[in-house]
Amino acid sequence: MRYRLMFGVGLAVGYILGSRAGRERYEQLKRMARRVSDNPAVQEAAGLVGAQVSRATDVARTKVSDVARDKLPFLQPRDGRGPEEHDETGTGWPREEKAVTPH
Q1: What is the rounded distance in angstroms from the CA atom of residue 43 to the CA atom of residue 35?
Q2: Which pLDDT belongs to residue 52?
Q3: For the whole model, what pTM was predicted?
Q4: CA-to-CA distance for 61 and 53, rounded, in angstroms?
Q5: How many DSSP H helices and E strands does the chain contain?
Q6: Which residues contact 74 (CB under 8 A, 6 or more apart)?
Q7: Helix (H, G, I), strand (E, B) or coil at 25
Q8: Distance CA 28, CA 34 (A)
Q9: Which tens digits make up the pLDDT trace of 1-12?
Q10: Are 33 and 25 in contact, with CB atoms under 8 Å apart?
Q11: Cα torsion through 19, 25, 31, 35, rounded to 10
């Protein structure tokens, strides 16, 4: 209960201080954020980070695909055919083959 009370007090103090700062301070912060985001150095850094994230996701996707292919038997080709040829049922699972019993 003590933590809830402290949280409530903190919330109330933050609300009061925020409302006193008012719209003017909000607009000032917004202008500053826009100025920073329009800076060419920040845009270049964001582009570099985006490229690194894209490269990392490609590597991760390849690794996950390789591990899945190794661990999931229905992705393994049994007779030299690729996994896309096993997906005749539309479920992603290979079609079960009927057992042939000799008469």
Answers
A1: 11
A2: 93
A3: 0.42
A4: 12
A5: 2, 0
A6: 83, 86, 92, 93, 94
A7: helix
A8: 10
A9: 777 878 888 888
A10: no
A11: -110
Residues 6 or more apart whose Cβ sits within 8 Å of residue 83 = 69, 74, 75, 76, 77
Task: Give the C-alpha separation, 23 to 35, whole Å.
Answer: 18
pLDDT at 19: 75
**Would you state the structure tokens that stand for residue 33, as one six-digit string?**
């954020």
Q: Which positions ≥6 away from 68 have C-beta within 8 Å?
A: 75
Q: State the residue for tokens 């409530």.
A: 8
Residue type, 25: R
Q: Measure the CA–CA gap between 55 and 61, rounded to whole angstroms.
A: 10
Query: Phi/psi at 93 (nearest 5 deg)?
Result: -95, 145
d(CA 43, CA 38): 7
